[in-house]
Amino acid sequence: MLYTFLYPLNSSYPILNVFKYLSVRSIGALLTALFIGLFCGMPIIRFLKKKQKQGQPIRTCGPETHASKSGTTTMGGLIILGATITSALLWCDLKNEYVWLSIFVLLSFGTIGAYDDWRKLATGKADGLKARWKFLSQALCSLVVVGAVSKLTPTELYLGVTIPFFKNLVVYLGWAYFIWGIVVIAGTSNAVNLTDGLDGLAIMPAIYVAGSFAFISYLVGHAKFANYLYIHSVPGVGELTVFLAALVGGSLGFLWYNAPPAKIFMGDTGSLSIGAVLGAVSLMTHHELVLSIVGGLFVVETVSVILQVLFFKFGHGKRIFLMAPIHHHFEKKGWAESTITIRFWILSFVLALIGLSTLKLR
């Protein structure tokens, strides 16, 4: 909105030329979302606490230490979504299709998550929305996004997946690309959801991934930089730099209240929507496989659950981990919650650096 209304006035007021720079608007978007999250966070927490009364139901089969978390306010993703979208509307170029598509992802998956959270609160159980309905709704929303991305994609990348470490290598999937896109978006959404099991555990890695893809979006959207790095350029995708900066700011604002001991949980409202938008951005930039490296922590958490289920089913009731996802395994081994969280943050930061290195190692 600021860009739309102020930048056209630059001929009369030259100082407004700063709005054409993605870097300036990204900083503005991050700080705006951060301040919105910080100043609106506590009123939102008080409102939700009043409405929820009993707070987040805790799984009875979870670690014993989680009993103390019973009653903690949930649906804190509303802080992230509100701050991010408000800031994006202020600082992004609202003529850009990728921005509106990202907002659609946040809102649609945020709605699915909010309904899931509401079901848990209404029933007093930790189960929420039935898995088949959750996955179906995620798949339908993802299909809409993949279809829109395919329409916006340059001809040389149409229905194709780029491969890290190789110059200009694209594997064309044909119509299987739509299945691939659904798996990327819905898979990332649920991966972040699985990781969100300890105070602050999921949000910081999500910030690392969002920040990494803000940088990737800037390079992919800039033809000269893309050509220098031997990566495919996607016109218009650079505007996602501003959007993702807003997401980083909103997430930091939420982390202020989610830091141990958490005053509020993000709930499925936050985890499903954040994961989905990260997956969608990887599709828009055509760096889906880089996402699996940058967001490697989410991959590890998801794989730990899959292995646990498969080994239990085909291994005569035996388990690989004391409990899955893997962060609960370390809790069962006696690690303090803060120790697990900080160590996972460190691992996520290292993986983000490795993922970014793929842009040059080609």
Could you write a compact summary of the structure shown?
This protein has 362 residues and is mainly alpha-helical. It has 14 helices and 2 strands. Helix content is 66%, strand content 2%.
Number of strands: 2
Low-confidence stretches: none
What is the share of helical residues? 55-70%
Number of helices: 14
Sequence of strands across the biggest β-sheet: 1-2
Question: How does the helix and strand content classify structurally?
Answer: mainly alpha
Estimate the strand proportion.
under 5%
Number of domains: 1
Q: Name the average pLDDT.
A: 91
- Report the C-alpha radius of gyration, rounded: 20 Å
Shape from CA axes? globular
Write the element-wise H/E pattern from the N-terminal end onward.
HHHHHEEHHHHHHHHH
Cα separation of the termini: 38 Å
Largest sheet: 2 strands, antiparallel
Would you kindly provide a written description of the structure presented here, covering whatever features stand out?
The structure is a single chain. With about 350 residues, the chain is an all-alpha fold. It has one domain. It is about 65% helix and about 0% strand. The chain contains 14 helices and two strands; from the N terminus they run αααααββααααααααα. It has a two-stranded antiparallel ribbon with strand order 1-2. β1 and β2 form a beta hairpin. The longest helix is centred in the first third of the chain and has 31 residues.
